[in-house]
């Protein structure tokens, strides 16, 4: 029974519609990472001391807000507009997508991030691709907690912003998600980097060739995303589930 179920689940993950969803995730994640990492590189080029200059933090936060709002919007009707392995994980834990589909989403998102960072590296020639790092006064555990809290807020916003029960407010869901991301960067950028997105941290680390503290940007966000999905579906709306057609079931 288990092999048959797995085969059926896998077949559903390689349908034409599913393949279009993976492509949508690749495109959206590519442009999101390109904008966020590119903004960090731009601030470093324009400012003599971008590390301590507050305007650099604001610039990256704005890039996060605009880029995430836009990329979520353009992919929402095709793939759900996850643009983030943590969001995909939260959706899988909540039972909104299958595990096999989530794995294909991850491949699309991770490869898109690497490609975006590689393009930035090749195009700028003299500039190094910045990686996410934690502040010297923080521990890896503390940084993971911060990233987990940020991911909780982001994934909760994704759940709420895409919920048909929100009525007309659902149309501004991508904007709300982007604003949550931007606010999180402003709050945690100097401490953990404010990634909230394992693909974002992974792509820059691969191209830069430095993986120090990379676990921080996986463990924290994945746990926070899972908790957010479980809380939204089982605490805020217990016993209710929104189907793909927008109907509410038990």
Automatic annotation (TrEMBL):
Keywords: Membrane, Repeat, Transmembrane, Transmembrane helix, Transport. PROSITE patterns: MIP. It is found in: Membrane. It is a multi-pass membrane protein. InterPro entries: Aquaporin-like (IPR023271), Aquaporin_transptr (IPR034294), MIP (IPR000425), MIP_CS (IPR022357). Pfam families: MIP. GO terms for cellular component: membrane. Belongs to the MIP/aquaporin (TC 1.A.8) family. TIP (TC 1.A.8.10) subfamily. This is Tonoplast intrinsic protein 51. It comes from Hibiscus trionum (Flower of an hour). GO terms for molecular function: water channel activity. The chain crosses the membrane at residues 21-43, 55-80, 86-107, 141-160, 172-195, 215-232.
């Amino acid at each position: 029974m288990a092999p048959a179920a797995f085969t059926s689940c896998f077949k559903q993950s390689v349908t034409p519609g599913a393949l279009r969803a993976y492509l949508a995730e690749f495109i959206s994640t590519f442009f999101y990472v390109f904008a966020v990492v590119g903004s960090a590189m731009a601030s470093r080029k324009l400012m003599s001391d971008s590390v301590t200059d507050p305007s650099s933090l604001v610039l990256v936060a704005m890039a996060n807000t605009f880029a995430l709002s836009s990329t979520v919007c353009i992919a929402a009707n095709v793939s759900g507009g996850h643009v983030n392995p943590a969001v995909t994980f939260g959706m899988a834990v909540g039972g909104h997508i299958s595990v096999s589909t989530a794995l294909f989403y991850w491949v699309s998102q991770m490869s898109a991030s690497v490609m975006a960072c590689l393009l930035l590296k090749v195009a700028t020639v003299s500039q190094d691709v910045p990686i996410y790092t934690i502040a010297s006064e923080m521990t890896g555990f503390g940084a993971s907690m911060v990233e987990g809290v940020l991911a909780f807020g982001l994934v909760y916003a994704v759940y709420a912003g895409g919920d048909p029960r929100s009525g007309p407010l659902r149309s501004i869901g991508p904007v709300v998600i982007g604003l949550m991301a931007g606010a999180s960067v402003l709050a945690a950028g100097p401490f953990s980097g404010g990634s909230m997105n394992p693909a974002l941290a992974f792509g820059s680390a691969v191209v830069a060739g430095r993986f120090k503290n990379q676990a921080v940007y996986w463990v924290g966000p994945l746990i926070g995303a899972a908790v957010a999905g479980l809380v939204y579906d089982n605490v805020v709306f217990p016993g209710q589930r929104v189907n793909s057609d927008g109907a509410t079931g038990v």
